[in-house]
Amino acid sequence: MDGLRILVADSHPAVRKSLRTLLEERPQWRVVAEAADGREAVRQAEQTIPDVIVMDVALPLLNGIEATRQIVRRVPTARVVILSTHADEAYVALLLDAGAVGYLLKYGADVDLVPAVTAVASGEVFVSSGIPRRVVGNRGRTTTPSG
């Protein structure tokens, strides 16, 4: 996975900085852009064409659901990983239906972030271990932290 290009979208500067630090511990990964709101995430995705986007679902101006829909339509090669505090199956399914291919629960992001980005960059669907696998349905091969 040489030269993986990543966009980080979160409204909190400290969270963006932490995510960047975790991601750039991998020498072949580079955060090419950051966004503080959904509109900026869409704009940055169009300008930088990242391979993976790590995006908080609760973004101002344009929420993560709609930003995901727009990004996958405009930058079809980008793979969106959602960060959320919601483990509800219907909510996860809504984000996956919007085009996300990864769903991370924030409380486990410190452990799951690198495996999630690795999985989605390889064409897999990743969901945190707190999410039932059945919610993924037939959306592709699934990876969870346990396997």
Could you please describe the fold and organization of this structure?
This protein is α/β, with parallel strands linked by helices and 147 residues long. It has one domain (4-143): Rossmann fold, CATH 3.40.50.2300. 38% of the residues lie in helices and 22% in strands. The chain is built from 5 helices and 7 strands. It has helices at residues 13-23, 38-48, 64-74, 89-98, 109-121, and strands at residues 4-9, 29-35, 52-56, 79-84, 102-105, 125-127, 142-143. A 7-stranded parallel sheet has the order 2-1-3-4-5-6-7, with helices on both faces. Strand 1, helix 1 and strand 2 (29-35) form a beta-alpha-beta unit. Helix 2 runs parallel beside helix 3 (64-74). The two termini are 20 Å apart. Residues 138-147 have low confidence and may be disordered.
Count every helix, treating DSSP H or I runs of 4 or more residues as helices.
Answer: 5
- Please give the CATH architecture: 3-Layer(aba) Sandwich
The CA-CA distance between the termini, in Å, is 20 Å
Report low-confidence residues grouped into runs of 5 or more.
138-147
Q: Based on CA inertia axes, which overall geometry fits?
A: globular
Strand order of the largest sheet: 2-1-3-4-5-6-7
CATH superfamily: Response regulator
CATH class: Alpha Beta
Order of helices and strands: EHEHEHEHEHEE
Mean pLDDT: 86
Q: Could you tell me the CATH topology label.
A: Rossmann fold
Q: What gyration radius follows from the Cα positions, in whole Å?
A: 13 Å
Which class best fits the helix and strand makeup? alpha/beta
